[in-house]
Every structure is written in C-alpha cells, then in structure tokens.
Amino acid sequence: MKDFTALRAVHQLQDLAKRPYDLTSDNALTVQRLETFKTSMCGFDLLYATQRVDENILKALQELADEAGLVEALAAMQTGAVLNRIEGYASEDRQVLHTACRDIFTESPMAGDASAKAQRELAKLQSFLDELADGTVVNQAGQPFSTMVQVGIGGSDLGPRAICLALKAYSLPGRSAQFIANVDPDDAAEVLQELDLSTTLFNIVSKSGTTLETLTNEQLIRDSLIKAGLDPAHHVLAVTGEGSPMDDPSRYLRSFYMEDYIGGRYSATSMVGVVTLGFVLGFAAVMEFLKGAHEVDRAALQPAVRSNIPLLLALLGIWNHNFLGYPTVAILPYSQALSRFPAHLQQCDMESNGKSVTRQGREVAWKTGPVVWGEPGTNGQHAFYQLIHQGTEVVPVEFIGFRQSRYGVDVMIEGTSSQQKLVANMLAQSLALAMGKDDENPARRFQGNRPNSVLLADRLTPRSMGSLLAMYEHKIAFQGFCWHINSFDQEGVQLGKVLAQQLLSILTQPDNQYGEEVLGKQMLRIAGLY
Amino acid sequence: MKDFTALRAVHQLQDLAKRPYDLTSDNALTVQRLETFKTSMCGFDLLYATQRVDENILKALQELADEAGLVEALAAMQTGAVLNRIEGYASEDRQVLHTACRDIFTESPMAGDASAKAQRELAKLQSFLDELADGTVVNQAGQPFSTMVQVGIGGSDLGPRAICLALKAYSLPGRSAQFIANVDPDDAAEVLQELDLSTTLFNIVSKSGTTLETLTNEQLIRDSLIKAGLDPAHHVLAVTGEGSPMDDPSRYLRSFYMEDYIGGRYSATSMVGVVTLGFVLGFAAVMEFLKGAHEVDRAALQPAVRSNIPLLLALLGIWNHNFLGYPTVAILPYSQALSRFPAHLQQCDMESNGKSVTRQGREVAWKTGPVVWGEPGTNGQHAFYQLIHQGTEVVPVEFIGFRQSRYGVDVMIEGTSSQQKLVANMLAQSLALAMGKDDENPARRFQGNRPNSVLLADRLTPRSMGSLLAMYEHKIAFQGFCWHINSFDQEGVQLGKVLAQQLLSILTQPDNQYGEEVLGKQMLRIAGLY
Questions:
Q1: For residues B409, B415, B418 and B419, what is the CA-based torsion angle, rounded to 10 degrees?
Q2: Within 10 Å of residue B199's Cβ, how many Cβ atoms?
Q3: CA–CA distance from A62 to each of A57, A319, B29 (Å)?
Q4: Do A386 and B213 touch (CB under 8 A)?
Q5: In this complex, which of B45, B183, B389 lies closest to A378 when CB atoms are compared?
Q6: Tens-place pLDDT, residues B252-304
Q7: What count of other Cβ atoms lies within 10 Å of the Cβ of residue B37?
Q8: Active-site residue flag, B59
Q9: Residue A7, min C-alpha distance to chain B (Å)
Q10: Secondary-structure percent of chain B, ordered helix, strand, coil, rounded to 5
C-alpha cells in the first residue's frame, strides 16, 4: 500500500477539486441525475445526486479505490491478515476479525477458526437465553429476570447501547435493558435507584478485564447487591477476554468470551453486543442482526464503487474531506430510534481514523479522519441546521431514513402521516442544502452546494440494523486503508490514562512531591481538590 | 458596531496568531501560569492556562472586547434594545429579553415590564404547583399526577430536557419528567407505551402555536387520552405565546405564556423550561435555578475580560476559531448528569451564530460560529479522544466538572473515590492535550498544543445549573456581537420547511405536476415513497 499523496488518483482528484460539480446552477439537479446517482445494496438505497460529484469525479474515485487496493485490503482483513500494526515499531500486531463474528451462515467462512469460536460463544448464549425462557435460570426467589444492565465503556457501551435503543420496539414482553458507563458515581446511582435489583442481571463487559470505570462500577454494583441481601454470583455476568483478570467463572453467573482480534469499537456483533441484545430481543433477533451485518460484509467486497455503498460512502467522504477541505461530517438519522447511533459512529470513526502516522510510522502529510457528529432529525432542524444552511462552516451531511416506522402507531394530519412528514422533511433538507436559494433579503439567502447523501431502507429491524452497522464499519475501514493508517489501534488514549494515574497517586499520597508530579499536584491544589 | 475585520484589535491579533503560546516547550506550564490564568465568578472557577494565550494576547483580547463594545451590547440587550434585526431589511425586529425572566430578585430590574410579566407567569406556576401539592389538582379518579411529559422541539425541548436530566437527583418523591420532540411517530409511541396515562400531565410547548412536530404529537396524545377514556382538557397544559392558535384555555388544564422577545433557544428560564422543572423539583428549586442565572447576568456586565467568565470564554473561542483557525469546539462535561447539555449548547450556539450576513445585511468576510459538539467524560476518553489527541484536526475543548457528586453514593477503590477519579481524569486530559509527549515510537507521540480550558464548580445544583446555562448564553451572545451578526434570528430554517411542505403537498395531491414541484415529485418516486 502507498502513501495517500503518492497515489496518481489523488493528484487527478486535486485537479478535479478546482471545479467540483455546482449543485446550484440551473438544471444541476435533473431527474436523470437523481436516477443515475443512486445505488442499492442489502435493502438500502443510497441517493447521492446531492454530492458535488460528476461522472469524471466518480471515475477518479474508482481509480483511487483500485489504486489504493481498498477492496483487496477489506478482503485481507476478513481473511485474518495482521492489519492492526505499525511496521517497524511496537504495536498491537493483531488480526482484525470482527467480521468473523457474523461469518456463520455459510459452509466456507473467510476466517474459519475465528468463526468457529464465535459459533461456540453464540451456542453458549443460546442455551443461556433458553434457560432464562424456560425458567431454569431464575433469581433466588424463583422469579424470572426482567432487566439486564450492561456495564462497560467506550466500545463496550456505545454500540450495544445504540443498537438496543434502536431495536427496543422488538423487545420480548417483560424484558428491558439499561446501561452504566461513566466512572461518575451519579451514573450508576441514577440507574440503580430505579431498579428492582432482585430481578436484575448485570452484564459486566471489559475485554482486558482491567478497565478502571467498569471495575469501579462493578464494585459499586456488587456492594449494592450484597446490601440488598442478594448473591452477586447469581446476578452478575461477564463478557471478557479468556484469561483476563475478570475470567473467573466462580464470581459470575455466566461468562462469555471475546477475542483480542476484535477491537472494542468493532465489537457490537461479538458477545459485547449480543448478550444484552439477546436478553431483550431473543436469540432469533440476534441471528437476524448478525445476518444483516454478514450480508454487507460480503457485498462490501464488490470492487465497483457505484455498486458498493460502504465503499462509495468512504470515497465521497474522502472527496469532501481531503479534496473539498471540509473538516467535519454530520450523521443525521431521521429516526428517533437511532438517536445514539451517531455517538457510536463518532467513536468508531474518530477512534479508528484520528491518526497522524502511516502504517510505516511516518507522519502523514494529508488529512485523516474528520470530526463526526450528529443528532436525529427532525429535531436538529430546530437546532443546529441554521449553521448547516447559512453558516461559514460547510458541513457534509449523511442522512439516514426509513420508509416505515417501527411501531406503526401514527396519526394523519392534513392528509399525511407523521412517518411521511418525517421522510419528506429529510428529502427536503437534502435538496435545500444542495440547491440553496437566492433572495433579495441577504439574510434569507442560502448558498447551497452543501454536499449530502441519503441512505434509505424500508424499516429499521434487527436485520437492517446489522446491515447499517456493517456499512459504516466498512466505510471507516476503507477510509483508513486509503489514508494508509492503522485504523485498529488507539495509542492516543494512553497519555491521559497515565497522567490520571499520576494525579490519583498524588491524592492518595499527598506528601510525595517529586519530579514531574509537582505540576499535577499544583493543578489539583489550584483546582481546589487538594 | 463595526465589522469584525474593521477592528484594530483584530489586526493586532492576526499578527499575534503567527506565534501563539507554545504549551509544549520546556516550562511552558508553570505553577505560576496555572495560578495566573485562573478566574472565578458565581461559584465557578475557569482554569485557562492550557489555552495558547499569553499576557499580550489577553491584552489584545481585552482591546477587542472594548473596541467591539461587547459588554455595552450585553447591557443594551438586558435593558431591552431591539437587537434581533437586520438593518434595512425585513427581519424579526424584536427585543431580546430572556434575562428578564430571571431579573426578579431586585427592586430595579433592567427591563421592568418584561420582568413584571415573568413574575406574573411565575406566580401562576407557583399556585399551580401548590394545587398539585395540596391535592386541589388531581386526576379524574382523585389521584395525584406523577409524570409530566413535555412535548416540544428545538428550544422547547433541548434546554428543558438537558436541565431536567441534570437536576433529576433533586426530584420530589413520586415525580418524574419525560420528553417527546420528534415528528417520528416512534418517539411518541415509545414514551407513551411506558406511561400510566391516568396520572400523566402533558405540557405542550410551542411559542408560535404552529410547530408541525408539536401539533402532530399533541394530536397523537389527545387521541391516546380519549382512547383511554380520559379527558384531554384535564391532562394537557399549554406553554405558548399569548394570542397564538394554541392560546385556548378551554382545551388546556392550564396555560402559561411566553413573550415574543424570548427566542426558543434562550427560553430555558422562561415558562418553556420551568413548568416541567417545577413539576419535578418544586417551586423553590425553580427560584434557585433562576437566581443562579440572574447572578451571572449581572456579573457578565463586568468589563474586565479576566474577571468575566462568559466574556473570557467568548474571546478564547474567537482566538481559537478566527485566529488559530480551528473550525469546531468540543464541550466535554465530566458529569453524566450533563449528558445532554452539549446538545443544548450545540443548538444555542450554532443556531445563534451560524450566520453569513452582518447586522447591516452585508456578507461576512470572516468566520462566524464554529461547529459545537460533545459527549460526557470519562465516556469520551474511550471513544473520540483518540482523534483529539492524535488526529490531524485540532479540536479546542471546554471541559466542565464538579468537585462533588449529586447523589453522594460512591465507592473507594485503590484509595480514591469515583468522583475523585472522574475529576482527576478531566484535569489529566487538560494537561495531556496541552503538553503532549514525545516518544521514539511515532505512533505514541502526542503533538500537544491542543487548546482547552476547565470550568469547575463544587456541585451541580439548581443554582449552579442556572449559572452555567447563563454563562454559555452570554458567551454565545458576546461572540455574536463581536462577529457583528444577528444571533437572535433563524432564517436558515425556512427553506427546508418550505420544501418539506411542497413534498407533502405532492404526496396528498399526486396528480398535480407543475413547475418546480416536478423535481420533488421525482425525488419522492426515486426514494420509493410514491
């Protein structure tokens, strides 16, 4: 693989970026353009006529994909290549095999051993869920468990939380999920005070088994259980790496394993994500979710950019970020159910691609990952859309929507349903951002040329949720391959951890005063904490 | 007021920006610097030694504040100047008087009529809350009401929701709040299915009384109440403008008014915010909240930049955005209770300052509002902080923290409490971002010089919440004054609304096919909606 700026297609695109497609000119948006710049995959349509691209630019983006070997790299990832590494330097040196968690539907998985391990954990989950359903596993008073609280942070929280929330409409009767993440003691306090502990299971999730926040919250929970006269070993589950400090079945009702080749931010389809999901929705829904993801894993290996939604999303993102120079991207789902999905993608994208060195450890001379942010529409229309339409910062937008609601509870007003209003608003925003509008009142002018695309499916279900998740995972991976960075490590979180430990050791040993800790000590004093 | 680029101080700052303070050099961060670059106001400390400023830059920022007349403009706002206008063009032409809602603690309010109106509505709220407490107002079965569901969107949702969530720890026994905002029918369906309608009040909030989303959800709620055999007029409240289409007391249990000089995004201290807050926390807490805001309103009129936190936050933001060129700002509260506060500030800031024309309707030749985003720490440390530390986009950060938790439920592990771990992590991140760290492994290098500040108070209470809110409202207003834009209109939301109406009219009259609607019709067809 080559450095980004060493690619021929990059130079071609720099040239094309001097005259990006003008969406505001007369007849820029024709019916033919709407039809041509549309593609479909695994139940999703992507409408991208409102991006600042034309046939030449798309051709150059295809050349970029080919020259950088993006699809080959994703295939290598899925077959178990050691992609989580920096050549010549100490690094995690691992495979990247989250796709194996869902490569369980064919006779010939791309990474057989990893898929076999995933199958083994899924079988354990299935029997556990069966035992909960048939009354074999009940609380000490013989009652069924009604709530599962997932305790994890980062990748052990954001994806699983976003997906459980998204699919809440499909919950089994009497089952629900809660989440605790923050080391802030108010987080656990607020969740715990509203629970009946006696019918609650706690699912403690930490790959390393050493995550400060998670272990702290686990302790707080075990204390609460004991105080309520309950046996923690009967209420607490573990999802962790085999052999981690948390891998101690005597302390947990059940233990599920995750492998070190599954990064936290890519772990939503591993046990990290599917234990709580299975508790709430049942095992069949978990399998649908995995199936949706798996279908996209395979479809994402299609080399034609215009038939491959994650690849196209990746390249349109690179066009907007590296060539048109826009520093952020907003992900705006027109679905309240997806209200936390942008937060998951923010983590998955920014932790993967917020890097400054290449796979060979050289400093990059080009932009890598953008700032990713977003909130659901139509809410955002009454909030930050003002800046998106008329501000001095141009924000590329990725809309996500569904033709039907999950619950089917709706009301007709002025001849249209709420769901129709929701989707019509999304499409209207897409057109408004692209086309803009002139006005003799300068405060009512809209510049237009604000690039955006619309990703649309029939309905948010376990299966389409799985597909949507995998599309974004691969969009992010494709971009990382193209920028020639390691999207699978997270060295940037270390320094803050080390400094926090130093400050905490000053708090426990305030008389110690030496070396670089002096500044931290003064910081604590000046902040009024010591 | 002058254009931003016509200010002498701006040219001086452009010059100073060629050599911003280098936080990574040896001894850049001394104890003396930590102590000097700290200020206090209304119970909050601001630590800003980790910004890229020195004495000269701060002096130039003071000159900018003076030359642009920022404090004078805020005083004019608070006394009722017509600041919501564009000279020479049609505009809202209104006063901006959200501060009057809390200017109720002295004999001489700055805008007497507006404060008298606020007092009148507060008195109505107080008697209503008394009647709920003493059993005068009960449901048709004689039971007390336990839940209030606020139905509103944008400013009628984000601020009130963020603040209710922040102060949940102080709820009256048996009282809670829920929120419905989105036109997505799944939003209302999910909230309604978990409620006992018979003991629920619905607080419908729309200043204009014409907000599509809110009226649609009100209809859905009235249908549900009737279906449950309940009388909507006994369960539904209104907060709206006097004389709006919703101002019809026969249809509502109670009606509270808001004035047209209070913008939606600045309405959290008006009836828009305090009715639900008062239901959950009681009237005394509402008064504390207003008091905290009022104290900051007055303190923000202090002209010395280094003694005025909102002014200093505004100018540091301008330094980072206009002079150092950073397009976004992250607001990262180390408090799970403030988990939705960044979303409120995102609206308040981006809708206020995402503008491209001056107060005289000329196109700006400088950057206005940044993209504002954020999530609570420590959660974010396990997510997007990777990019903040090591990405190619530099993100200025505003940390917010508290020395004590709200609930006081905590656990000691390795000699420190969770609350200590929380605050130590925040301070450690502040230092790490500023100082960076070299390493022989390039993937473990931290560039540093990532500007940030820490805003710190003892505890999140109704009073400190009010102060925090007002600090950010005035930060935003000061920046808008400095950029010479109208921070109080929102013309940018109109185009999308108009186009959405066009698309909806196509859906109800599909045979109509003329003029510019053709494109919308084809968009609907291609999206599979027609």
A1: 90
A2: 16
A3: 9, 12, 49
A4: no
A5: B183
A6: 999 999 999 999 999 999 999 999 999 999 999 999 999 999 999 999 999 99
A7: 23
A8: no
A9: 20
A10: 50, 15, 40
Q: How close is the nearest chain A Cα to the Cα of B512, in Å? A: 15
Tell if the CB–CB gap between A496 and B385 is shorter than 8 Å: yes
Which residue has better confidence, B73 or B521? B73
Nearest Cβ partner of A395 from B190, B193, B371? B371
- Assign 3-state DSSP to chain A and report helix, strand, coil percentages, each to 5: 50, 15, 35
* Chain B residues whose beta carbon lies within 8 Å of the beta carbon of residue A223: 411
Q: Is ipTM beyond 0.95?
A: yes
DSSP state of B168: G
Give the H or E element holding residue A271: helix A271-281
User: What length is written for chain B?
Assistant: 530
Q: Catalytic: B92?
A: no
How far is A498 from chain B, CA to nearest CA, in Å?
8
Q: How far is B513 from chain A (nearest CA, A)?
A: 14
Q: Residue A378, preceding bond cis, omega within 30 degrees? A: yes
Could B213 and A378 be called an inter-chain contact, meaning their C-beta atoms sit closer than 8 Å?
Answer: yes
Give how far Cα A167 sits from Cα of A445, A458, A483, Å.
40, 15, 34
Size of interface A-B (CB pairs under 8 A): 513
The encoded tokens of residue A142 equal 């013989």
Joined tokens for residue A255? 């233990």
Chain A CA closest to residue B37: A526
Determine, for residues A368 and B391 on separate chains, whether the beta-carbon distance falls below 8 Å.
Answer: yes
Both tokens of A429, joined, read 């925003």
What does the block give as tokens for A424? 């019509």
Of all residues in chain A, the one with the smallest CA distance to B373 is: A373
Q: Coil, strand, or helix at residue B413?
A: strand
Q: Which residues contact A303 (CB under 8 A, 6 or more apart)?
A: A65, A66, A71
Option in B90, B366, B381 nearest A493 (CB): B381
Residue A78 has pLDDT above 60, yes or no: yes
Residues of chain A with CATH 3.40.50.10490: 1-489
Q: Pick the residue of A193, A351, A387 with the most B CBs within 10 A to test the interface with B by mutation.
A: A387
| CB atoms near residue B511 (< 10 Å) | 5
Tokens 């976003």, located at residue = A162
Give the largest CA-CA distance in chain A: 74
Entry pTM:
0.97
**pLDDT tens per residue, range B193-234:** 999 999 999 999 999 999 989 999 999 999 999 999 999 999
Q: Which two tokens stand for residue A312?
A: 């196209």
Q: Identity (one letter) of the amino acid at A489?
A: D
The token pair that represents B101 in the structure block: 């809602």
A497 included as an active-site residue: yes
**Exposed / middle / buried, residue B247 (Cβ in 10 Å: 0-12, 13-18, 19+):** middle
Question: What is the CATH number that goes with domain A1-489?
Answer: 3.40.50.10490
Q: Could you tell me which chain B residue has the CA closest to the CA of A526?
A: B35
State whether residue A367 is helix, strand or coil: coil
* Shortest Cα–Cα distance, A458 to chain B (Å): 9
Determine contact, residues B97/B477, Cβ cutoff 8 Å. no
Q: Which letter, b or e, does each residue of A417-426 get, where b requires 16 or more Cβ atoms within 10 Å of its Cβ? A: bbbbbbbbbb
Token pair for residue B161?
Answer: 């929701």
Q: Out of A29, A350, A443, whose CB is closest to B387?
A: A350
Helix residue spans in A101-177 (DSSP H): 112-134, 158-166
Nearest to B528 by CA among A337, A313, A402: A402
Residues of A in contact with B337 (CB under 8 A): 184, 186, 190
